[in-house]
Amino acid sequence: MALNASKLKVGDVHTARLVDDLTRTQIVQYAGASGDYNPLHTDEIFTTKVAGYPSVFAHGMLTMGMTGKMLTDYVGDTRLTKYGVRFTSQVWPGDALDASATVKAITERDGKTFVELDVATTNQNGVEVLSGYAEARIDP
C-alpha cells in the first residue's frame, strides 16, 4: 500500500524491529551474499587476537540493507528515490535493531509528490548504529 501525502505530516514517525538477535550465522550469510569476507566480520580469532575487537561484527551494509527494507516496506516497492547513510556504531552478534523513518518534509517537483525522511537505526541499548536520509515518491 503506497503512502498518501494527504495522510502524512511533518514529524510522523514509522518504526520497525529489524532483528531480535543478530546471529553470527546471519553475518556470515551476508558475507557470502555480498562477497565481502573481511575477517573482521567472519574470523573470531583474527578479530579478537590481531585486530583487538571483542568479537566479529556486522557489515555496515548489512545494517543498511535491513534498514532499507524497513523503508521500502513503509513507502512501497519502487518508490524510494534516494537513500544514504552514515554508520555511527558497530553492530555485534546478539544485537537487536530497531529502525525509524521520520517525515522531514513533503514536497512537489515536476508534478510528483515526494516525502523526505530522516532515518535512524538503534540497538537494544538505544545506541544509534546508523543515521541517514531517504526520499520517496508518494501519492498526493
Strand-helix topology:
Layout: E1 13-19, H1 24-34, H2 39-42, H3 44-50, H4 60-75, E2 80-87, E3 97-109, E4 112-123, E5 128-138
Antiparallel strand pairs: 1-3, 2-5, 3-4, 4-5
Strand percentage lies at 35-45%
Compute the number of structural domains.
1
> Main beta sheet, described?
5 strands, antiparallel
| CATH topology descriptor | Thiol Ester Dehydrase, Chain A
Rounded radius of gyration (Å): 17 Å
Major sheet: arrangement of strands: 1-3-4-5-2
> What structural class do helix, strand and pairing data support?
alpha+beta
Q: Could you give me the name of the CATH homologous superfamily?
A: Hotdog Thioesterase
> In CATH, what is the class?
Alpha Beta
* CATH hierarchy: architecture: Roll
Helix percent reads 25-40%
Shape: elongated
Contiguous runs where pLDDT drops below 50 for at least 5 residues: none
